[in-house]
């Protein structure tokens, strides 16, 4: 949400006043992306009565090409009644459109978006939907969203031809199905700030748009360690060495600390029903972006070493949340102050090489700024 800013990833050295000794050679960070379509919808952040399909509005509308797609959304119900939220696919082709919904998850109560990702990662159902030419079908409809509650979610799907994806908030579903609603474009008006009443905030700092890559970033981190290796295992990017890896910040591609490998090129609708667009190279705090880190440790020493994988955050007055997926399962961490959390630990025996996949994602809502680290315990 806007209070929690939006996403772009940069990798910085934090805690420069702290020395973390390590004899390990730094691993170079270079994320790979997957082809597909990333749909991000957080505008308007605060949904008012006029944004409902009942009042003639479509929250977001986008034409996407054939292939894999992933939709991420989050909004606060600022109406005085409940509504539901849905994502609908329209077939603009002369032939039947096939939609394969692979996984999805959502959260509709409170301010915690983590349950959406628990549900997403655990979803094993696959739904195949056929849509005749000129018709629409729902691929997601939420439960009721109460006043002052957040609806957030993620949907992974595939289309075999061009498709138009529509995002709606509604009370009477017929208004989202009868073709009368129109796309509201990019909302820039001031709306009540539910974080600091009775103030108002502009919505033009809240984003929605389309990027030509799925929100999945993959990298392999290789370290060779010995008995004398200690502390944080270093990384290298932008030709500099760091102890920690910072993600989910709010920087743009033209800023000096931005790490371009994980910045997304978004086409953002400006106004007038989405007919005017601007291209933005940024990360919007990389909410909903799945970081997949393959950690490879080669132990050339004579004793077993323990490896800790964790995150660190510095408080900026707003809570931060992260969902992690490891070989041990799914967990999440919430920070309302400066602190760290080791969320996965494993051992590497002498003379062996171990590979572990850990994933993390920042759900909506959350504040930006996460530092990732891999470090060795001082085994004796």
Commentary on this structure:
With 380 residues, the protein is mostly beta strands. The chain has 2 domains: 2-33 and 212-272 and 287-376, no CATH class; 43-206. It is 2% helix and 49% strand. The chain contains 1 helix and 29 strands. The chain has one helix at residues 114-122, and strands at residues 27-28, 32-41, 46-47, 57-58, 60-64, 67-77, 84-90, 97-107, 127-131, 136-141, 150-159, 163-170, 182-183, 190-192, 200-202, 208-225, 231-232, 235-237, 240-242, 245-247, 264-269, 277-282, 290-299, 305-313, 320-326, 329-335, 339-348, 353-361, 370-376. Strands 2, 3, 6, 8, 9, 11, 16, 23, 25, 26 and 28 form an 11-stranded mixed beta sheet that branches. Strands 17, 20, 24, 27 and 29 form a 5-stranded antiparallel beta sheet that branches. It has a 4-stranded antiparallel beta sheet with strand order 5-12-7-10, with no helix packed on it. The longest helix has 9 residues, at 114-122. Residues 1-19 have low confidence and may be disordered.
Summarize, please.
Residues 1-21 form the signal peptide. With 380 residues, this protein is an all-beta fold. It has one helix at 114-122, and strands spanning 27-28, 32-41, 46-47, 57-58, 60-64, 67-77, 84-90, 97-107, 127-131, 136-141, 150-159, 163-170, 182-183, 190-192, 200-202, 208-225, 231-232, 235-237, 240-242, 245-247, 264-269, 277-282, 290-299, 305-313, 320-326, 329-335, 339-348, 353-361, 370-376.
């Amino acid at each position: 949400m806007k209070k929690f800013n939006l996403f772009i990833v940069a990798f910085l050295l934090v805690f420069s006043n702290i020395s973390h000794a390590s004899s390990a050679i730094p691993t170079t960070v270079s994320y790979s992306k997957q082809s597909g379509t990333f749909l991000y919808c957080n505008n308007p952040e605060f949904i008012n009565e006029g944004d409902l399909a009942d009042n003639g509005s479509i929250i977001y509308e986008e034409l996407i090409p054939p292939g894999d797609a992933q939709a991420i959304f989050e909004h606060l119900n600022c109406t005085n009644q409940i509504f539901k939220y849905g994502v609908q696919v329209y077939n603009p082709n002369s032939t039947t459109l096939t939609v394969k919904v692979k996984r999805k998850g959502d959260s509709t109560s409170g301010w915690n978006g983590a349950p959406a990702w628990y549900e997403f990662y655990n979803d094993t159902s696959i739904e195949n939907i056929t849509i005749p030419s000129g018709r629409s079908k729902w691929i997601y409809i939420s439960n009721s969203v109460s006043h002052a509650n957040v609806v957030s979610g993620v949907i992974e799907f595939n289309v075999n031809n061009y498709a138009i994806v529509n995002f709606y908030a509604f009370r009477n579903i017929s208004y989202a199905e009868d073709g009368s609603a129109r796309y509201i474009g990019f909302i820039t008006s001031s709306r009540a700030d539910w974080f600091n009443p009775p103030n108002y905030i502009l919505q033009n700092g809240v984003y929605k748009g389309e990027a030509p890559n799925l929100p999945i970033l993959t990298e392999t981190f290789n370290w060779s360690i010995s008995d004398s290796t200690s502390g944080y295992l270093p990384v290298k990017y932008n030709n500099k060495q760091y102890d920690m890896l910072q993600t989910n910040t709010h920087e743009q591609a033209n800023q000096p600390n931005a790490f371009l490998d994980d910045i997304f090129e978004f086409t953002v609708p400006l106004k007038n029903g989405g007919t005017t667009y601007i291209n933005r190279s940024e990360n919007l705090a990389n909410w909903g972006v799945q970081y997949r880190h393959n950690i490879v440790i080669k132990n050339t020493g004579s004793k077993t070493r323990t490896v800790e994988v964790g995150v660190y955050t510095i408080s900026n007055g707003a809570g931060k949340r992260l969902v992690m997926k490891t070989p041990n399962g799914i967990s999440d961490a919430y920070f309302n102050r400066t602190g760290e959390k080791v969320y996965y630990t494993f051992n590497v025996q002498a003379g062996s090489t171990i590979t572990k996949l850990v994933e993390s994602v920042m759900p909506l809502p959350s504040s930006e700024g996460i530092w990732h680290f891999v470090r060795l315990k001082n085994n004796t």
